[in-house]
Structure formats: C-alpha cells, structure tokens
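Quick one: structure for this chain?
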Amino acid sequence: MMKSVNVRKSLFRLLWHRIEEDDIPGLSAQLAYFFLLSLFPLLIFIFTLLPYLPIPYPDILGSIREFAPPDTMDFIEKNVNYVMNNRSGGLLSIGVIGTMWSASNGIHSLVRAFNKAYNVKESRSFIVSRGMAILLTFGMILVFIVAVLLPIFGREIGVFLFSYLGLKGEFLRIWDMLRLLVSALILFVVFTGLYWIAPNVKLKCRSAFPGAAFATIGWIVSSYALSYYVGNFSNFSLTYGSIGAIIVLLIWLYISGFIIIIGGEINAFYSEKHKSNC
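Got it. Here's what it folds into:
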C-alpha cells in the first residue's frame, strides 16, 4: 500500500517537473494548431466517402456533437455543410492530400513530444516517419468509421433481436447507457496504438495502457466539462464576436493536446521505472 502511494507521489512530481522542462503547454499549443489545420480536411474526406459507406450524414456529426462544445459544433457543422454543398469532382483527392499532409504534421508533433518524454532523439528517416504518420492517420480514419458504424448497427441488431422478446424498450435504455462505454473503448484503442507506435522506442503494447487509460478518461471528462462550461457559464461570442466559436475550438484542441502529451509522459514514467527495477 505504502509503495503504491510512493509511486503515485513520484508520478505527480515527475509530471509537474516535466510540464515545465518539456514545455508541455507550448507543445500543446503547437498540437492545437496542427489539429485545427487537419480537422476540416479530415471531416471533408470522411464526408466525401459517405456515398460509399452505409453511414447517414447526421450520424457523423452526432458522434462529434456528443463531445464538442456547443459553439464549436455549430461552427464545424456550418463550414462542413458549406464545403460539401459546393464540392467539386476532385474534392476526394484534394481531401486525401490535405488530410494526409496536415495530419502527418500533427502526428510528427506528437512524435517529438513523445520522444521528449522518453528522452530519445528521432533516428528514423523522413520517409519512414512521414509514412508512419500517414498510416496512423488512415488507421484513425478507419477507427472513426468503425466508431460511427458500431453504435448504428449495434442498435439496429439489438432492436431486431430484443423486439422478438418484447424487451425493445429495456434494450434501448441499456444501449443509451452503453454508448459512452463503447466510445471510451474505441478511444482507448486509438490512444494505445498511438502511444505504442509513435515514439522512437521499442515498446510492448501493454506498456501503452496507463497513458491510454489516462488520455481516454481525461479527454472525455475535459470535453464534457468544457462543453458544460461553455453552454452554461460563458459566452465567448460576447467577448470575441464572430470568432468566438474558433476560440472555443482552439481551447478544446489545446486541452486535448495537453492531455495526450501527459499520457505519453505517464507511459515514459512507468517505462523508466520498469527498467530501473530490472
């Protein structure tokens, strides 16, 4: 028991020290910038794929609306609708190029942050590191599509099966409670893959679990907290005018980047501790 308390104290001291030493606030701001650049190309690319996928348009936005602050969601929906209504035949290829390039820059920033956490330098070539970033981006797109499809088809299959038992209403109530759990599980898988593959360190998959668990819980809680705060206690439009929604979006992306980097620092802490015990 005492050993567990000492480990937690050591972790908190390390995180407090690393926040300043590794300039985590600055790296988080950098990530927010790259996340903003990649967000709309990513959404445009996904929406352009909709004719080839069994996903209703509102369900894509609904999966984002569940976590995004209200003003931010209105801003995202308005701009995506504008682009989709004025799209050209070459939008898919443009979306691929824009998404891959922007997102690979964001992943590159994450790689540098994770390498700092592990105190290693990037020794992989530009082609290898960029290719890894592109593969991770495709992987995230695939997981996002699965994340949207799973609740849709899971709900429909459940309704079909439980209707025969006369338990359709009970199933729907349980399913609504499980939706957050399903979202959390998918996020955990995404973060685990990111923490496992991105750093320039040979790691076992399970070594990414502590940071992935922290990032999953931290991101969900912070997203709901920011959404609640913006919706009930603050009106950024009064302070920033028409760019209020962009400010909220940047704050959300900044907090997300901060949490993801802290998750990498947590994994680095346990990795170093494991080596010292060997």
